[in-house]
Amino acid sequence: MIDELVKQITEKNAPVVVGLDPMLSYVPEQVKAAAFEEKGETLEGAAEAIWQFNKAIVDATYDLIPAVKPQIAMYEQFGVPGVLAFAKTVEYCKSKGLVVIGDIKRGDIGSTSTAYAVGHIGQVAVGSKTYRGFEEDFVTVNPYLGTDGVKPFVDVCKEENKGIFVLVKTSNPSSGEFQDRLIDGKPLYELVGEKVNEWGAECIGSCGYSAVGAVVGATYPEMGKVLRKLMPKTYILVPGYGAQGGKAADLVHYFNPDGLGAIVNSSRGIIAAYKQEKYASFGAANYADASRQAVIDMIEDINSAR
Q1: Among the ranges given (9-18, 24-33, 233-242), the one the predictor scored with the smallest mean pLDDT
Q2: What range defines the domain where residue 253 resides?
Q3: CATH number, domain at 215?
Q4: Is 247 a catalytic residue?
Q5: pLDDT score for 100
Q6: pTM beyond cutoff 0.90
Q7: Are 223 and 192 in contact (CB under 8 A)?
Q8: Which of 39, 105, 151, 247 is catalytic?
């Protein structure tokens, strides 16, 4: 699947991913009103609103972008109906030819990690048959439990031709409380980066990159520069661009000399673009068109820095 991701990035000249992280407050009133009229002010109504919101944005942007990244917590907050909306969103994005990065941030002891991996990027056995719980192509993985928590995902990736992005240096302000701590003279994030490079050595695609990628925030460009050198064959998923303060000029070192090696995420900067002053002229009625213009602007911004 890393080969497919690189192919899509190259063909569309767009090293970007749209984060489908729909807070109900992002959904325009007319979309919520229609959903609530059909299903009431219920969890089902909320799930219908975010599904319709997602669908319109995907319809407006799928030809421009290689991938989407739905954050599962934004769906789980609405319970079972929300998870169904997540599954429907993933399925719809796949039908549009998009690579889907499930932002699930799972990681646990071996057997539990296996269950997470099987459920999201693998196949579960039911009697004599097997089924896919979800249809993501990649998932994000928390490495806090070490190899025991990550290896089950790597094993499923190899079996299913899927991929993972391991949290290495995250974009949030307090990430340094643990990730920057020195261990034997090195910050912890560097040690995790070295392990990612090791885990991914057996999963190199024909494109030259590994199916085991890394999450490195846009808000820490100097650290990203170091990690790029430590993980030369690792694709880097870069959160924190735009709304969190990351700038395109800061990201040049996240890419390799071939112009590849990184894919930059924007979530609310795209899906809630109509709420920004820059795109206010589109209005809530044309929120999906505002998202499309925000994608075009982001691609131009990132490519100018590349």
Answers
A1: 233-242
A2: 2-305
A3: 3.20.20.70
A4: no
A5: 98
A6: yes
A7: no
A8: 105
